[in-house]
Write a structure and sequence with these properties.
Layout lengths: L3 E6 L9 H4 L8 H10 L4 E10 L2 E12 L13 H13 L2 E5 L10 E3 L5 H21 L6 E8 H7 L8 E3 L4 E5 L7 H6 L3 H13 L3 E6 L1 H6 L1 H13 L12 H9 L3 E8 L2 E11 L2 E9 L1 H7 L1 H15 L4 E5 L3 H6 L3 E3 L1 E7 L2 H14 L13
Parallel strand pairs: 4-6, 12-13
Antiparallel strand pairs: 1-2, 2-3, 3-4, 3-5, 6-15, 7-15, 8-13, 8-14, 9-10, 10-11, 11-12
Helix pairs in contact: 2-10
Length: about 375
């Protein structure tokens, strides 16, 4: 496509007036969400907004994020082994300044949107040019970007992107995105449970029996503000015990999100003996329900099977509100498959700005990527 250009914006106040019209199909590229990132992004993250024009008309929008991984005290403390220590050393010293074209905080193809049909050759060109412009921007600020990553593309897109300006980039596949495509015939939770085989129907009943005594309710904005410290503590426990992290949310993230996005962002609290012991959060993105961050008290989690019940509750919400699918993300693959989600492979593309290191990326990436052995479950009749 000819006559394409782009402009990189650093503040949402400076976005073109019709930005949200172009981003209409993806709430995670619209101003309310971008303002959440602007006001409560992780402390080691800075966001950039890319306006794409054909002649002088805005036709596309994209998101980029810079992460200074060196600012993190911990990348995740679950795994204690030599490989993890080596990985952390390399990230600190050779990959601490990372530029993402896309959204590193959520899973899925959320990096760009266009208001008109556009070929992937043009998409790949604009994204690569944008990344180069941002690398130059940081160089002028005496910051050398180490890694540039183009995040999360479904297979049909990645195949086409490789034919064009992504052809020299290293394609990587991390853990799959767990997605639950909800049958249109399901209208209630009972329809969902009826579809289980006996083994998984028994699992559902056992989990619901375990959670007795726990009050589950959606939190309004005032409650989110009231419980903010407790919510963050629960989130941080889970995040810190993940195998790998490149950021930690700001403490005001959940309240900011609720204030900005209202009913598009839902937080559900789990209370036991009057105390908040867990929460899950959901993002309503058109006909797709996206699971967001959650947290729990580990001492209660095991006894009450909180995590499994959260998965069931999020699925129930998706069914009863008529969503076509639920994006469950890349963690806890086996348990998510046990409630009905299936793995969908997504690709990313990456390069190192140091030409010598870039040649080693294929070998380094395979050695450093955390491995997860899991067995897919098939819960339905």
């Amino acid at each position: 496509m000819e006559n394409l250009s782009f402009k990189i914006v650093t503040k949402t106040a400076d976005l073109p007036s019709n930005w949200d019209e172009v981003a209409a199909q993806n709430h995670f590229l619209q101003t309310p969400y971008l303002q959440v990132l602007e006001q409560s992004a992780p402390t080691n993250m800075h966001c950039f907004y890319i306006a794409i024009f054909k002649n002088s008309t805005l036709i596309g929008v994209a998101l980029a994020q810079y992460l200074n991984v060196h600012q993190l005290d911990s990348f995740g403390e679950r795994d204690k082994c030599l490989k993890t220590a080596l990985r952390n050393f390399i990230f600190k010293n050779f990959a601490s300044h990372v530029l993402f074209l896309g959204n590193n905080m959520i899973t899925g193809q959320n990096s760009y949107a266009f208001s008109i049909p556009i070929d992937l050759a043009s998409v790949s060109e604009i994204l690569v040019q944008s990344s180069q412009a941002l690398v130059t921007y940081f160089k002028e600020k005496k910051v050398n970007i180490h890694l540039v990553s183009f995040k999360d593309f479904y297979e049909h897109c990645s195949v086409e992107l490789k034919k064009h300006h992504f052809s020299t980039l290293y394609e990587f596949n991390t853990q799959p995105n767990m997605i639950f495509n909800l049958p249109a015939s399901w209208k209630t939770e009972s329809d969902y449970v009826a579809a289980f085989s006996k083994k998984y129907r028994d699992q559902f009943k056992r989990a619901h029996k375990k959670i007795e005594g726990v009050e589950v309710r959606e939190l309004d904005v005032n409650e989110v503000i009231h419980y903010e410290e407790a919510i963050y503590k629960l989130y941080h426990y889970v995040a810190q015990n993940a195998p790998f992290n490149t950021f930690f949310l700001a403490k005001n993230h959940f309240s900011t999100f609720k204030k900005q996005c209202g009913s598009r962002f839902r937080i559900c609290g789990y209370f036991f003996e009057g105390r908040l012991v867990g929460f899950h959060s959901l993002l309503l993105n058109d006909n797709v329900l996206e699971t967001y961050f959650l947290g729990y008290d580990e001492t209660i989690q095991k006894e009450k099977m909180l995590y499994l019940n959260m998965l069931y509750n999020m699925t129930k919400f998706g069914i009863e509100h008529g969503f076509e699918k639920i994006i469950f993300g890349r963690t806890a693959l086996e348990i998510k498959s046990s409630i009905g989600a299936t793995p969908v492979q997504m690709s990313g593309f990456i390069y190192h700005t140091n030409a010598i290191v870039n040649k080693l990326i294929p070998k380094l990436f395979k050695r450093l990527e955390p491995e997860t052995a899991w067995q897919q479950r098939h819960p339905f009749k």
